[in-house]
């Protein structure tokens, strides 16, 4: 049922098969199918459930028409259908729900068209003719071999600094302005917001991959990724919080490998705990973006993460981004003190814009898309540009100053703490 696609089945494909829920719809489809030279007996009743059972043991047709009228959760049911459909099958859905949101979500999930019941013979004929043209069209395989893959990990120095928000925004910028075929891999399996930020349902792809790493291949990636646009896809999850994820990291590494072949750019939203649990995840990442805030705790953890990257990923280019930056008078630590403590410059400062953040959340869009002319977006464009430049030149050089050893790190943190009372006294 879940075996990889077998190209040998293509010659056995029926030109058209339909699974519907009622006799009236079946009769309408049979009439149009007959006019197009297709066998009427290929129109069956039983709806989506019958389709999944039948296609799990038989080759998929060239064109598949599926009735969703009896489906309580159309999107999840379509995902189940995708598990048994071979690549290249053109799928048309029909149903009784007249909802633009449902239509959009179905199209994003891979459905070619959605027809409202009762079916109009002329509209059905047009849809089937268009589907036939799509199936018979020459398949264009883009050559991405001349452009090196760019893998970037976003790591929050502290929880809540906005690393996930920046990751989705910069992924959107790269996919739109590159334009590059871009994937977001959100490795916060229980609380990830990669799909949520783009107003998408995460699906079960990531949890399925973790539970069964042997299934991960190119076909799995094609089916598991949730498309946000023609050039941006997301692999995220909302695993139950009473179900701990047990993994040795093999699934995460395999996902990275498959994405390297399927996409031009991968943006990995990497929870900092992953550095401890699965250090190998950063081994082949070209860029690590540390997202921080100007606070004492964030300074301490930025120092530790920089030191960790130096030891475990010495060829990875590091970019430090200060996010949600407040006016100087409201900062817990000044820019000068923060940079002195981490022994390097902060590369980019993203000003805090509460109104823009709220608007983006309400619209289910990224900061970069909603605030195209905002001062908050300008540094994000610069980060995206630098990531693409590093990827294009395959530059792995760290290009940064030497970090302090463990003893000196503790000393720096102590020095920084010592600054706090003095600063507080000055503000009284």
UniProtKB/TrEMBL annotation:
Gene Ontology MF terms: ATP binding; ATP hydrolysis activity
Recorded GO CC terms: cytoplasmic side of plasma membrane; cytosol
Keyword Cytoplasm: no
GO biological process: negative regulation of cell division; phosphorelay signal transduction system
Domain Response regulatory: 15-132
Annotated positions of the 4-aspartylphosphate modification: 67
Coiled coil: none
InterPro entries named among the record's database cross-references: CheY-like_superfamily (IPR011006), P-loop_NTPase (IPR027417), ParA/MinD_ATPase (IPR050625), Sig_transdc_resp-reg_receiver (IPR001789)
Keywords noted in UniProt: ATP-binding, Nucleotide-binding, Phosphoprotein
Identification of the protein by name: Pilus assembly protein CpaE
Native source species: Sphingomonas panacis
